[in-house]
Design brief:
The complex is a heterodimer. By secondary structure, chain A is an all-alpha fold. Helices cover 57% and strands 0% of the residues of chain A. Chain B has 2 domains: 99 residues, Rna Polymerase Sigma Factor, Chain: A (Orthogonal Bundle), CATH 1.10.1740; 69 residues, Arc Repressor Mutant, subunit A. In chain B, helix 2 crosses helix 3 and helix 3 packs across helix 7. Chain B is globular. Chain B is an all-alpha fold. Classes of the chains: A mainly alpha, B mainly alpha. At the A-B interface, helix 1 and helix 3 of A face helix 1, helix 2, helix 5, helix 6 and helix 8 of B.
């Protein structure tokens, strides 16, 4: 193919493709560039991290529910006194100031709680 | 942009029309397919699945990403939607032919009928003014291979364009 033929072919093709592009107009860039909508979601790279965080939150929730939070917070100084050898010096009224944690188990009714003396000794 | 700090969206906007036109060539002139391919390309850029490192010009890189997206998409839907695609292409061709002149239609149809690499290298070199070396970068092939496709494409296109003229 000579250079003349080649440039002729190029011009023909260029003109035809220009005509095609005049007819088939591109959609607006703003409708296709969806950076904002993409940012609303979680990127691929962060998905494992997000899944781990969700799992950790679920586990933390289960542990929180299983833990007894009704126990009264004790005064650190009093706790220190109770753990020392002089625990008996702690005034009783101080100990009574702390509310006992509610029991989560069903207690047997007094009526059905009849054990003979022999059984209790054994 | 977080994943592609070297890309300025305004620069992309300037290339938008050219990118759409190139996507059209990659999908043999099917408008809806070209839109989907370009949308997927933009998403890949935003999400960082395609990263521009500045080794080539942004235009060359964009063309390569668009081509890869078109190839990937065509593989995905080739078998499942073959018949549906044919119907859509037929409808699109009918619509286009009512709007454009027959001569341009015939040339574009002849271009679309060429094998993928021949069609793409001719579009890049003749229409978009890329050097054959740049076209090779876009297509991900060696320069020598691109030259072969360029020569074969020219001969095949010339043959297709000449054949009907002789019969008329």
């Amino acid at each position: 193919m000579t250079e003349h033929h080649e440039s002729q072919l190029a011009a023909t093709l260029r003109a035809a493709l220009e005509q095609r592009d005049r007819v088939v107009r591109p959609p607006r860039f703003a409708t296709m560039w969806t950076e904002r909508s993409a940012r609303r979601g979680i990127g691929f790279a962060w998905r494992p991290l997000a899944a781990s965080a969700i799992c950790a939150l679920v586990v933390a929730g289960i542990v929180w529910r299983a833990t007894d939070h009704s126990a009264a917070q004790i005064d650190p100084q009093l706790a220190h006194q109770l753990s020392s050898a002089d625990y008996w010096r702690v005034p009783t009224d101080k100990l009574l100031a702390y509310e006992a944690a509610p029991l989560r188990a069903d207690l047997p009714s007094p009526a059905g709680f009849q054990i003979s003396l022999e059984e209790s000794v054994l | 942009m977080r994943h592609n700090p070297l890309i300025d969206p305004r620069e992309l906007e300037q290339l938008h029309a050219q990118c759409f036109s190139w996507a059209l060539t990659c999908v043999r002139g099917q408008r809806s397919e070209a839109e989907d391919v370009l949308q997927m390309t933009y998403l890949a850029i935003i999400e960082g699945r395609a990263r521009f490192d500045g080794a080539s010009s942004l235009k060359t890189w964009m063309f390569a990403v668009i081509r890869n997206q078109a190839r990937s998409r065509s593989r995905q839907i080739r078998y499942a939607l073959q018949s549906l695609t044919r119907i859509a292409a037929f409808a699109a061709d009918e619509q286009a032919s009512s709007d454009t002149d027959a001569h341009s239609d015939r040339i574009v149809a002849a271009l679309h009928a060429l094998p993928n690499r021949q069609r793409e290298v001719l579009d890049l070199v003749f229409y978009r003014g890329l050097a054959i070396a740049e076209a090779a970068t876009v297509l991900g092939i060696a320069l020598g291979t691109a030259r072969v496709h360029y020569e074969r494409g020219k001969a095949a296109l010339r043959q297709q364009l000449d054949a009907p003229e002789r019969t008329l």
